[in-house]
User: Fold Vacuolar protein sorting-associated protein 16 homolog from Chinchilla lanigera.
Amino acid sequence: MGCYTANWNPLGDSAFYRKYELYSMDWDLKEELRDCLVAAAPYGGPIALLRNPWRKEKATSVRPVLEIYSASGVSLASLLWKSGPVVSMGWSAEEELLCVQEDGAVLVYGLHGDFRRHFSMGNEVLQNRVLDARIFHTELGSGVAILTGAHRFTLSANVGDLKLRRMPEVPGLQSAPSCWTTLFQERVAHILLAVGPDLYLLDHATCSAVTPPGLPPGVTSFLQMAVSFTYRHLALFTDTGYIWMGTASLTDKLCEFNCNIRAPPKQMVWCSRPRSKERAVVVAWERRLMVVGNAPESIQFVLDEDSYLVPELDGVRIFSRSTHEFLHEVPVASEEIFKIASMAPGALLLEAQKEYEKESQKADEYLREIQELGQLTQAVQQCIEAAGHEHGPDMQKSLLRAASFGKCFLDRFPPDSFVRMCQDLRVLNAIRDYHIGIPLTYSQYKQLTIQVLLDRLVLRRLYPLAIQICEYLRLPEVQGVSRILAHWACYKVQQKDVSDEDVARAINQKLGDTPGVSYSDIAARAYGCGRTELAIKLLEYEPRSGEQVPLLLKMKRSKLALNKAIESGDTDLVFTVLLHLKNELNRGDFFMTLRNQPMALSLYRQFCKHQELETLKDLYNQDDNHQELGSFHLRASYAAEERIEGRVAALQTAADAFYKAKNEFAAKATEDQMRLLRLQRRLEDELGGQFLDLSLHDTVTTLIVGGHNKRAEQLARDFRIPDKRLWWLKLTALADLEDWEELEKFSKSKKSPIGYLPFVEICMKQHNKYEAKKYASRVGPEQKVKALLLVGDVAQAADVAIEHRNEAELSLVLSHCTGAPDGATADKIHRARAQAQKK
Assistant:
């Protein structure tokens, strides 16, 4: 144990710090780090180097090279820089490299050096140029802060949703501040800058002078400032070598340290562990590294090479030409287990397990000691937790073996934490491999989440490893394997040295019908890469027409989109394509396209009937569809025309169309309607009243009601209304008028073609039994019973039915014998039936 803690360095009495090697860097750097712009992403992210040829002392005509490496020094990309001078670089939370140029343009590159996009920080920045810039991360996203040549600040808190904010001017600021940084408080980004002995805090509206509490006298300048990873704490390095540490709000002082070095440090970053009460700052000069905190002494390391510090959630990464190391506070669980002469339960359990492997009885003694104190559960938990914070697999295994050994002596220890830690460590060890180069700690991994880690593996095109992790952790397919395969397919379509057919086949063979994979998204990526034919082939595998059609329209394959929409049977989708085609094609081509698609043509006609009548007429004309054209003009004569002349003209056009369609009936009917309209106009002119738009029957009825019987009869003759129909019309009209005298005259004018039962029915409908009885006697024998029953003469109806010897009539009369007065009638019918049966 003593050997294991050899690299532990105490800071005061309550904390130890250790520095261990992550990787031996084999990158072939052509320049020293001091001569490059360096950007390293947190959470074990990539490193970008750009030789800085724009420094005056290093001016050269050779174009610089932008190089991107993994944290282990494996080259990911290298490209010749062809744009303007770069002032600063930084990585976004999505691991995109932001390069801030002197003219205020920000160029965004992917992990593999692929150019993504660019944006500008505004005209003021363009005019005054950029003196300095910072890329910072907040819960809102990744932001950029700019210091211009006019000594003004401009920032955007989220480059994904760019909203530029010009910060207030600092009164009397004539030169660049000695140091500055970004703070993030209450979801708002601020700028803290130092001008001589004064500090100023800029928010969106005001510039406030602030004073750190407890700052010693004699400070004439601030040389460096650093904000913690979580933006909660701030450190200030003064020209007297004094380091002030406190809250970022500058309301409380945590501690101070005098390093007795007045030279400005190259870098100063925080080194703290989540949920730890210890606070420490790491300060780096050319050949010295110092860890200071709330202790009278500091921890110092000698730097053999030019080094660069990367602040992390739970420590600091330090890389140089030859090594990449991690400096952090030793976690409590590790400290209790490995501290010299520790009697913590985890330390005793680890010793017990080692003695057990040696088959020594001391294992039982250690175990009994833990059990007597009732600390076996705590010991197992300590070993599990400490295993997570160890970087070396051998020590991880040793601690996990100890935890497994202790679990055997516990009745109800939940296995979840042990199993989960084993899984997490397998994942961490896999991604820490030199060829992968993501040196995440356990705390960083938990903060980052497995989904983000998978995204980062996909970003590095490490698809097999990502899939293995998903399968090992048994993640749902939609969140795991399916999503990764979709990303792989999107990358596959960018390989332009492979034919479209081969790429489409390879993607389909790999993906098949994997749930959660959208072929349309992959096809959209192929189209974005200029591979339209590949996109069409991929869409053939997309089962959802609603996803196929919009992309086909975007690719200007409208006719294919129409075929797919028709095959789907989704009328809304067909309408969408039709409206797109209508705007895209000229009218002739559009109509020709529709002629080849009967379903689409039918749907478009339905649309035109409600929205575009003129287009509907053009469709019928182009198809020589005279029948529908006649119907169109027929409807148009009533819908659009109010003048009788216009209506008659439209009807004449309709009649001509019907004749061309060889529909004699429709043509004759239309001509009759034209004659009726002219006659109705004449009737209105001569008689007054409302006749227009009445039907032929209603016109006759109106004339009868108005007492114009002769005109009604003449109209019936002109339009060949049958006598039966005319008698019905006249009968109904006179009954509605209750002109019973005229009705009687009409009934006697000649023999009724409809018989006299209708007279009885109409009179009873008007509740006039007296008049009905007049006509009941004139009803023929076959309808006599029904007529008598209508007027309520049940007895006479019974006599007639008995006389006719008709069983149906007898049953009908019997059904009307409901009251006591009809009892005799019912008996008479029963006797008649009995006599008929005897015969």
About this structure: The radius of gyration is 49 Å. The longest strand covers residues 16-24. The mean pLDDT is 84. Residues 143 and 158 are 5 Å apart (CA to CA).
